[in-house]
Amino acid sequence: MSHGGDEAAPPEVGSASPLTWLATFAVTTLLLVSLQQALWLVVPFLLAIVLYYILLPAVRYVSRGGLSHEAAAAVVCGLFSVAAVLVLVPFSAWVVANSASGEVAFWKYVESGKGLIGRVLGEMESRFAFMAQWDLQNEFPRKAAELGQKFVQEHVTGALIKAAAWVPSLLLAPFLAFFFLRDGRRFVNRLIRAVPNAFFERTLHLVDKVDSMARSYFAGLLYLTLIDTVCLVIGLAALGIPGAFALALLAAVLGWIPIVGTIIGGIIVVLVTVAEGAASPATVYAVIALFLVVRMLDDFVFVPLTIGRSLEMHPLVSVLMLFIGGAVAGVLGLIIVLPLAGVVMIVVDCVAHILLDRRLMARYAFARRLRSMSANADLKA
Amino acid sequence: MTRPGKDSRGPPGLSEVPLFSTLDAKELRVVAGLLHERRYEKGEVIFDQAEDSQALYVVISGQVLICRQGEPETGKVAEIGPGLAFGEPAILGGYRRSAQARAAQDCVLQTLSRSDFEGLVESHRAIALKVTLQIARQLARQLRQQTGVFSDLPL
């Protein structure tokens, strides 16, 4: 029989109201504050979600061969772990072997950066007479050294120790991803089973929307990283910058941090370019121009093609969310606040629609009465 | 109580449901892992007319009444018994329900959501194809019956 389901177009959960936005702000901020106590767990959790969406198509592909979903998840995660070990072990050995020269290179890049800014300021002082009285060419390096030393003492050392403490927790990511892949659907099914009948189909819709949003956001982020890496590699290689691939990959990954990530990536590449000595001022300007062009391509072409409107969030709200995320939970807050707010918005919107839907609430109340009557049927005097 | 994904044979009688009758035992286990079991009291509304549709339902036990919205007595469209499915177009697209469904008796239903069916299209295309073919056959049969009704009308 095919009754009861063949009419009209698919509706959407309505566009978010101002009240929904306020609730989304409040809940997201509360979540960020509470997550602060477990930031060490947030990073592997976030990586596990990204891995989940990377590996899910592979699990589905392997399932086509006749394996059960659980077996396919085990096979795919096993192969991924082997590949990760094959890449990470030689890489770790290389990092340890080059750590001393890496530190030397870091200070070399910092000095080069100071030199570049000093030269630019000197040139500006020679062109604009009013700037000469400030003696920025000599003052800047001195102040920068003082502030830099203070910053390193106060922040960098602590940040490095924190980062080192997080490294073991990163090993959790593949394990979490494996369990997400193997048991995720079962877990969601158990959650759905607890939902009253009246809200069952709305809950299915909610779960589907959250999954679609997270998939399009995280998968889109990965595609965006890939596209940015390719563009930057081509640009940097054409400009003759050494280590173009590593620099491009680093800059593209830093792009995961909204707003400041691209700027930090650009500064690092410029410093490396200057430190390598071969670069002329024209090359430095070309590198800056390359980053600006890639940034614009991201905003107008690549982001709409990859992440698109997965978050369905107004740009103003996104910026406010980024400020809140950064203020409450720092760099990690910046990275997680948009997808977190996206999920919270969908849940808040859906729950608000259920609570405000008198028909659904009436059906729920009626079903409860029916159950109560059924349970008490043989208890009448 | 059936535990989706755990019972190696799938829900009782799943192979006898016309919608899944062309699936072999292994394929039935895959489908069983995707089903949600729901229990309804007699008189409980399963879905309303014009409501967003997200899942198809298979009656495992009991009877389901399909009727015009709020007219269970006078607006009966069909009564669905064990082994039969209803609301199939839901998994083909996000359509609105064309009628109301209520439990005519205490009943146990298995449901397959659209998102799970779309996942099936990705991971087990043969199963998705067989189920889609069965839905198409049922819709064709229903259309032919309706055409037959219209051909008898003195127009």
SSE topology:
The complex is a heterodimer of chains A (381) and B (155).
Chain A: H1 18-35, H2 39-63, H3 69-97, H4 99-127, H5 129-132, H6 136-170, H7 172-193, H8 200-238, H9 244-254, H10 260-275, H11 281-305, H12 315-356, H13 358-375
Chain B: H1 25-32, E1 36-40, E2 45-47, E3 55-61, E4 64-67, E5 76-80, E6 85-86, H2 89-92, E7 100-103, E8 107-113, H3 114-123, H4 125-152
Antiparallel strand pairs in B: 1-8, 2-7, 3-6, 3-8, 4-5, 4-7
Describe the structure.
The complex is a heterodimer of chains A (381) and B (155). The radius of gyration of chain A is 27 Å and the shape is elongated. Chain A has one domain. Chain A has 381 residues and is mostly helical. Chain A has helices at residues 18-35, 39-63, 69-97, 99-127, 129-132, 136-170, 172-193, 200-238, 244-254, 260-275, 281-305, 315-356, 358-375. The two termini of chain A are 43 Å apart. The longest helix of chain B has 28 residues, at 125-152. Chain B contains 4 helices and 8 strands, in the order αββββββαββαα. Chain B starts with 24 loop residues before the first helix and ends with a helix. Residues 1-10 of chain B have low confidence and may be disordered. In chain B, the strands form 2 sheets. A 4-stranded antiparallel beta sheet of chain B has the order 1-8-3-6. Chain B has a 4-stranded antiparallel beta sheet with strand order 2-7-4-5, with no helix packed on it. In chain B, helix 3 packs across helix 4 (125-152). Chain B is of the alpha+beta class. Chain B has helices at residues 25-32, 89-92, 114-123, 125-152; strands at 36-40, 45-47, 55-61, 64-67, 76-80, 85-86, 100-103, 107-113. Chains A and B meet through helix 2, helix 7, helix 8 and helix 13 of A and helix 1, strand 1, strand 2, strand 5 and strand 6 of B.
